[in-house]
TrEMBL record:
Family stated for the protein in its record: Belongs to the metallophosphoesterase superfamily. YfcE family.
InterPro entries: Ap4A_hydrolase, Calcineurin-like_PHP_lpxH, Metallo-depent_PP-like, Pesterase_MJ0912
Pfam families in UniProt: Metallophos_2
Name of the protein this chain belongs to: Metallophosphatase family protein
GO cellular component, one term: cytoplasm
Protein source organism: Clostridium manihotivorum
GO molecular function term, any single one: phosphatase activity
SUPFAM superfamilies: Metallo-dependent phosphatases
Calcineurin-like phosphoesterase domain: residues covered: 3-187
Annotated transmembrane regions: none
Length: 239
């Protein structure tokens, strides 16, 4: 059986990323896919981009990656942009919007928010009809996928409906629900088009939240109060 670790939404949080990568290594998993949002919010955009480039076999583009590398018109976006070198910015600009492959007879498609839209937000409490759009073919000639795996909303869950499986891997760097980094493991027979056993596992990893908050404060990241609240409480900041 092949095993793939799927991470997303690191948001420049080095302590969380290091803890997750250590857990993946301890499990003996060699293949890692990243579903975007490498940068933004935390203290270490430059370091996180380099680690992801060197560790993950595939990376897709997130909304923050797009905004930091291609727009950079807000305080937080500019703060991140000026800390990246030209090669890192080009890397973020050229990330694909989605990837797909077969595993254990299932067509799996992975993206940040939606295969053709980094800003489409499908939350865990959306209706089945709203969620079903994620399975649509992203281009002419493509198929509906059997499994859609995404990030963006920072809330990990698995749901089955209409013979489909929808998975959100949660967030490494700014997890909601619980103040522990989140990622997923996909296990099956890679490139196999005949049905075979397949499994999906959501993993929570404790990490040094206090260090992440301290690093952000020392780096004087924009919107520090909001970021600190989200890390400490696993909740969206509502002043």
């Amino acid at each position: 059986m092949d095993r793939i670790a799927i991470i997303s939404d690191i948001h420049s949080n080095m302590p969380a990323l290091e803890a997750v990568l250590a857990d993946i290594k301890e499990r003996g998993i060699k293949r890692i896919i990243c579903l975007g949002d490498l940068v933004g919010k935390g203290a270490n955009p430059k370091e996180v981009v380099d680690i992801i480039r060197n560790t993950c076999e595939t990376v897709v583009k997130g909304n923050w990656d797009y905004l930091v590398a291609e727009v950079a018109d807000g305080e937080t976006m500019k703060w991140n942009n000026i800390r990246l070198d030209e090669e890192q910015i080009d890397f973020l600009k050229n990330l694909p919007l989605y990837i797909e492959f077969y595993i254990s007879g299932k067509l799996v498609r992975m993206c940040h928010a939606a295969p053709n839209d980094v800003f489409l937000r499908i939350r865990s409490n959306c209706t089945v009809e709203e969620k079903s759009v994620l399975f649509n073919p992203p281009k002419n000639g493509a198929k509906e996928c059997d499994v859609l795996i995404y990030g963006d909303i920072h809330v990990a869950y698995i749901q089955n409906f209409n013979q489909k499986t929808l998975i959100n891997v949660g967030s490494v760097g700014v997890p909601l629900q619980v103040s522990q980094a989140s990622y997923a493991i996909l296990e099956g027979k890679l490139d196999e088009r005949t049905e075979a056993p397949i499994s999906f596992t959501l993993v929570r990893v404790p990490y040094d939240v206090e260090k992440a908050v301290r690093d952000a404060k020392e780096a004087k990241v924009p919107n520090f109060e909001k970021y600190s609240h989200e890390l400490n409480y696993g909740q969206v900041y509502r002043p």
